[in-house]
Write the structure tokens for this entry.
Amino acid sequence: MALAEDLARLRRLTGAKWTRDPEDVLPAWVADMDLPPAPCIDATLRDLIDRGDFGYPQRTTMPTVAEAFAEWQSRYHGWMPPVDRIVPFTDVLHGIDIVLWTNTKPGDGVVLLTPIYPPFIRALESSGRRLIDCPLDPDGWRLDTDVLRSVIDERTTAILMCNPHNPTGRAFDAEELAGLAAVAEEHDLLVLSDEIWADVLHPGATHIPFANVANHRSVIFSAASKAFNLAGLRCALAAVGSDTVMATLDGLPNHFRGAVSTPGALATLAAWTEGHDWLAETQAHLTDQRDHLAGRLAAELPGVSWQIPEATYLAWLDFRGVDGGDEPAARLLDQARIALSPGCDFTDGGRGYARLNVATTRPVLDAVVDRLVGEFA
Ligand SMILES: Cc1ncc(COP(=O)(O)O)c(C=O)c1O
């Protein structure tokens, strides 16, 4: 009954996750959460509608969001970005595209720590930048500084990373980030650090903002969209440590940098000023979901292996032990009618893997795992 109720609610959603596939498919792919919004966000958006408040945004709204971001970062991650270096973007990928296009050249090498979130690969392809592949160590998904140093060539000018890391769920530690900063210094690389997952941390994990390691060569991207499930509202920002990048952004025509919608800005502000308790409760649920998946896989499908994530609500599952083929997600979609993210989309290193999103209700997660186990057990 609980499952039927959850599905009835979720199937009314109009976003990509619940509309892309036919009704008999259970989606566990794109990184949206199947949870109702935080009450503070719900109330903020209802007030906006009640007021009919759809005029041009007030110029001071985004600086207020920037202040809330700085205070949030200071409280949770020990980093206080200066508000005058915080630049709004429509979404994180928009900001990444703009910084790549304006601060690297066609043919430049850009390092990705692979396997990696597929839009990063597309950002390089569409801008004519070369992918410099730095594989993480599959035994724990650690970043090896020697591997990083060895892949860089003379036309490499940037590193594009996400920390915490999608899909592996690693929150890179101080040693890994210091190693990365040292290599960036040696080769004068710009570091684009996408920290959109910083607030989805499981107990015991710490997020270290790259700005606290090497601010002068960094641009940090963030949004409330992962932790508070606001991706459809389009509001993101970058904290620009690099003076060169700041100067290029300042020189761009205004509309080139896009714009944030009023609902996006106000919902983000509500999240970062009033969302503390909701996030703590939600995080507890996400950790329970992660642990529940771990328990079920260990008991029912031990041939599927994974490294328990420290952050994110993603599970990067290795199906090679159950003969899942190169692309287990394709078989799971065809046969088991569950939609996971295909591992090959995350570079060749994702062959044999698939990514599962646990940010749903317990009945839906159990239904997904039942089908997964049924296919491979
Ligand atoms: C690492 C990473 N960056 C960016 C995004 C998307 O952010 P946005 O919708 O703000 O472009 C995601 C979404 O899953 C992500 O995992």
Remarks:
- The two ends are 26 Å apart (CA to CA).
